[in-house]
Amino acid sequence: AQKVTQAQTEISVVEKEDVTLDCVYETRDTTYYLFWYKQPPSGELVFLIRRNSFDEQNEISGRYSWNFQKSTSSFNFTITASQVVDSAVYFCALSRYTGANSKLTFGKGITLSVRP
Amino acid sequence: GAVVSQHPSRVICKSGTSVKIECRSLDFQATTMFWYRQFPKQSLMLMATSNEGSKATYEQGVEKDKFLINHASLTLSTLTVTSAHPEDSSFYICSTRKGEGTEAFFGQGTRLTVV
Fold first, then answer.
1. How do residues B67-81 score in pLDDT, each as one tens digit?
2. Which of A35, A90, A104, B89 has its CA 20 to 30 A from that of A6?
3. Per the CB < 8 Å rule, is A106 touching B93?
């Protein structure tokens, strides 16, 4: 069985602060995919990143960065210099590596509020 | 642009009526569509997986006679909430993937309110 744990439920920061969203996962698979999605108030899910279990390199995209630690089964997401537009619910998700249409297993989500 | 189009975005219906939600893949053939439900301030819970030309696979605890799924073509999957009740009020989202290892694309979601 696969499981994703996002222990933080709500985080509130002031604009320009850095914030890290934690994600811990469980799977028996040796290969798998990890994802982060953003869900703004409109409800639509916005894809942020996909990482396969082979690649443990950290990734940076603008103000966003991801730290994948296979040894601790964690895939944390950091927003640098947060902005009000970053306010949303963020989901970490996990899927099997094989199978073109493997379902995603989501964490409970973290509500991030960025105050001006 | 959008890869998956879901309609309607919002619907209010009376208790006891049925509601159909459509999900279309716009520029590719989706052999599999996932249907999720999300209650306020909660995560997305998979309800069922629809496969083109065959019966949908429902997750444990999801009533297949209440949530009818039809995947008659490679670009269209529908979810019908039959005899809707207020407890069915939720946000329903469809999703598909273009192929192995790709990210999941989501529809815009349908906010269903049963009064």
1. 999 988 888 999 999
2. B89
3. no
